[in-house]
Amino acid sequence: EAQLVESGGGLVQAGGSLRLSCEASGFAFGDYYIGWFRQAPGKEREGISGITHTYGTTYYADSVKGRFTISRNNAKNTAYLEMNNLKPEDTAVYYCAAAYGHSGLVLSLWLDYPRDDDYWGQGTQVTVSS
Questions:
Q1: Cβ of 45: how many Cβ atoms within 10 Å?
Q2: Mean pLDDT across 26-52
């Protein structure tokens, strides 16, 4: 059974940093794009960053560009999201997701339009206090 487990969320002051992890199991991690999404109360889910499976090409939404860094370690079946200079508006539940990468998937489009059959984690709360 495919599974994604996020960790590393918590409470941090504005300007602080957190590192989220997304540990995968039950599927061929190295064949999948990994994306990070977030959803704040009362707001729609937002795809904020993604990384491709082979070359590690990355994409960032404007809201996090220059502050967040996505990476992956295929040997450890784990992806990461390093978040720096956090702002109160970054407060949200953060989810990682995986999508099969050998189907011509366009990373930026996937982040805008994730699919029902993608793999999703349960989410981790990030709260940034002002």
A1: 14
A2: 96
